[in-house]
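Per-record layout

source: Marinitoga aeolica
name: Copper-sensing transcriptional repressor CsoR
length: 91
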Amino acid sequence: MHNNKNSLNILKTAKGQIEAIIRMIEDNRYCIDISRQILASVALLKKANTKILNNHLESCVKNAAYSNDPKEINVKILELEEVMNYISKNL
């Protein structure tokens, strides 16, 4: 895993939002306001995931391809297939 600093910052922002959502619920804030904050947090998590997957393609998958090791290449393809299947089930 290389150069995921941007993703880390996004995740820290999402963490702050989630902590704020918890306080909103504890303070009995308006449900729609809470829902909007949850959706904003979900969007940040998706953004971080996209950046991490792109980084994976640019580093780990490329390295596997350049290695010319069929087993390593197959492992990377299977990993991506698993993630894509999970994402498609949760759309």
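summary: The chain has one domain: 5-89. The first helix runs from residue 5 to 26.
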